[in-house]
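A reminder from the course coordinator: this example appears on the midterm review sheet, so study it carefully.

Given structure:
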């Protein structure tokens, strides 16, 4: 059977994905890129250039380059006047009064532009899959009317693709998360809000999804769009603009210039977007602009390095030739807060349009939902932790591929989960794997476990989430890593880190870690079944049986060595404090035991398979018994010191 690919034909970017038994994945181009800019340049003699090249050369070839064609798909020429005004390309009346682009006097329809993008995606897919691709599922916004949907079909036909189905973008996003794929007996359906904040547009859709019959997975009525709202002029571009305006004002102040050229504004905006993206991962980011890139300033006396007032900016590393300002998350949040509030208003309206139905899940789509403030606001507005496990740029294409595989009947072998196929857990000190949820647990599942720190004054804990049946994390499949930061300084072993695993009805894993004393919290989300085939599950299961004995041994030795090292540390410290009050023979006896255990630990760490676990266990127990007297003496001494403290060291 020829494959059916899933295509997200986007306003700014397009992607192609495939779903096989390892689940859906985006097909990358020759340079390893997932996103293809939806930009086409029409050269003379009917040739075209598409994607990154067309985008990068757009400024040079404004008249022949077309971007954002999707905004005009299937729409009348007159009805598009307002959007056209913001664009660099000229519109003209095309066939049947529809909007078309004026390229050197010729009318190029939005379908023709889309066809070039689709042809390129098809080429990428064929290269990756080593086969001819003629069938596709293509996504469109939920609000697209019949004419717009038909135009999308026409575009596909122009490049020789048969559209097996047109799917709504929010529906695809839900499908990518496996929503709707449960056994009919399991649930009574779900209401899902899909919040899509991209570069230029915002869409909110409320979907009602009845669980599909596993035996008869035709999607027909399973996904219903209850309502959609949005704003076709609200997105990440506006955030860039706000940062750019701030930077422009700063530059004007510093250099006493009054205006910029168009090219300067573009340069400043690029720096602004760069800083915006960095702020999604860091508390602060720099807006940095090389002065010699600013045309306006080259002709301006103020740029003279000897007199440039920019030399006085924040860090000494600043040279006279660079504009550099730090932007904090808090500042950025203040800038975008009113815009995010507008998206939440639209959300409220969309819910009202859907008779204020209770929302069960929120799915985030679009590059701008990487902004932590956006996530937090959506979570606060809905009281639901939104789904973010999948890349927000890719989630629509992945869902289109899932739909494609259902249509081609290939989906039967997928891990459609009622139970957890592989145990889920975290790495512990020494590299052992602590399972929190064991395989074959029914979904949904929840488990918590307490962990502690290993070093004195450790202020962060790295949490490594994995899945598998083996005892050491290196033999398991890594899923995600995150850090719990900002712990107050405490001695080793005192912090109480509670790790919670929650696998919801769709198989999405939420891991959170809370340090009890300080209340510090961190969380991550993952889709553990992604990229996992049933053959792989079987192999991992088989391996765990083959290696059961040696695995158990390694796990036991690792844990013993970790605990013994902590004992050695504590006892060593107590000895250092109290040895004067102890009999020398006893001190010497303890010191010998410590040395012996330390060398046993060192051996266990370098060659766990050769280590004698029983001997280490015995030695540790013996040390525990023998150190009782030390602990008693140490406590008595501490009490005495507390009593004398106020008189010997009077406090102010
Ligand atoms: P569209 O649906 O409009 O084609 P996308 O979903 O591709 O748009 O989103 C593009 C937007 O996402 C751009 O404004 C881009 O700056 C923004 N974006 C991408 N990555 C990040 C990030 N890490 N942090 C903040 N914004 C981001
Ligand atoms: Mg989008």
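Designed residues:
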């Amino acid at each position: 059977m020829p494959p059916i690919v899933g295509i997200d034909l986007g306003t700014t970017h397009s992607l192609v994905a495939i779903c096989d038994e390892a689940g859906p994945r985006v097909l990358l181009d020759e340079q390893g890129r997932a996103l293809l800019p939806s930009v086409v340049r029409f050269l003379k003699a009917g040739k075209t250039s598409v994607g990154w090249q067309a985008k990068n050369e757009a400024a040079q070839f404004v008249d022949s380059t077309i971007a954002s064609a999707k905004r005009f798909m299937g729409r009348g020429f007159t009805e598009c006047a307002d959007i056209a005004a913001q664009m660099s390309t000229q519109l003209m009346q095309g066939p049947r009064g529809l909007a078309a682009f004026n390229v050197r006097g010729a009318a190029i329809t939005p379908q023709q532009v889309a066809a070039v993008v689709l042809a390129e995606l098809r080429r990428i897919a064929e290269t990756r899959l080593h086969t001819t691709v003629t069938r596709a599922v293509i996504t469109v916004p939920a609000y697209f009317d019949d004419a717009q949907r038909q135009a999308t079909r026409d575009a596909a036909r122009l490049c020789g693709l048969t559209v097996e189905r047109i799917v709504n973008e929010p529906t695809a996003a839900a499908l990518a998360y496996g929503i709707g794929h449960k056994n009919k007996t399991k649930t009574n359906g779900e209401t899902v809000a899909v919040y899509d904040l991209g570069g230029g547009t915002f869409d909110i859709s409320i979907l009602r999804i009845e669980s599909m019959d596993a035996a008869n997975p035709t999607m027909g009525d399973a996904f219903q769009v209850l309502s959609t709202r949005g704003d076709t002029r609200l997105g990440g571009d506006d955030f860039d603009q706000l940062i750019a305006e701030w930077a422009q004002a700063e530059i004007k102040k510093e250099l006493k210039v009054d205006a910029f050229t168009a090219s300067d504004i573009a340069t400043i905006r690029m720096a602004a977007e760069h800083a915006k993206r960095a702020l999604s991962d860091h508390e602060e980011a720099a807006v940095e602009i090389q002065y010699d890139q600013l045309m306006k300033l080259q002709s301006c006396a103020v740029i003279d390095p000897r007199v440039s007032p920019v030399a006085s900016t924040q860090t000494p590393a600043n040279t006279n030739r660079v504009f550099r300002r730090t932007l904090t998350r808090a500042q950025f949040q203040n800038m975008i807060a009113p815009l995010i509030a507008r998206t939440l208003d639209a959300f409220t309206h969309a819910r009202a349009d859907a008779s204020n139905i209770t929302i069960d899940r929120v799915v985030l789509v679009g590059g701008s939902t990487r902004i932590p403030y956006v996530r937090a606001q959506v979570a606060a507005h809905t009281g639901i932790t939104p789904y973010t496990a999948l890349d927000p740029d890719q989630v629509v294409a992945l869902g289109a591929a899932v739909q494609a595989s259902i249509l081609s009947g290939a989906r039967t072998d997928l891990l459609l989960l009622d139970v957890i196929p592989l145990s889920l857990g975290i790495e512990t000190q020494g590299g052992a794997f602590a399972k929190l949820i064991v395989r074959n647990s029914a979904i949904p599942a929840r488990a918590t476990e307490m962990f502690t720190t290993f070093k004195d004054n450790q202020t962060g804990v790295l949490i490594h989430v994995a899945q598998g049946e083996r005892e050491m994390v290196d033999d398991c499949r890594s899923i995600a890593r995150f850090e719990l930061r900002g712990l107050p300084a405490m001695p080793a072993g005192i912090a109480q880190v509670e790790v919670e695993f929650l696998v919801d009805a769709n198989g999405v894993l939420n891991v959170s870690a809370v340090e009890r004393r300080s209340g510090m919290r961190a969380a991550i989300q993952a889709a553990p079944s992604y990229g996992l085939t049933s053959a792989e599950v079987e192999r991992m299961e088989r391996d765990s049986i083959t290696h059961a004995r040696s695995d158990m041994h390694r796990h036991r030795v690792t844990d013993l060595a970790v605990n013994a090292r902590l004992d050695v540390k504590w006892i060593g410290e107590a000895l250092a404090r109290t040895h004067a009050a102890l009999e020398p023979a006893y001190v010497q006896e303890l010191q010998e035991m410590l040395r012996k255990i330390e060398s046993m630990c060192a051996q266990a760490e370098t060659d766990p398979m050769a280590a004698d676990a029983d001997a280490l266990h015995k030695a540790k127990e013996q040390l525990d018994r023998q150190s009782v007297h030390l602990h008693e003496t140490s406590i008595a001494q501490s009490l005495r010191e507390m009593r004398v403290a106020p008189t010997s060291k009077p406090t102010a």
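The chain is about 35% helix and 25% strand. Residues 548-578 form the longest helix (31 residues).
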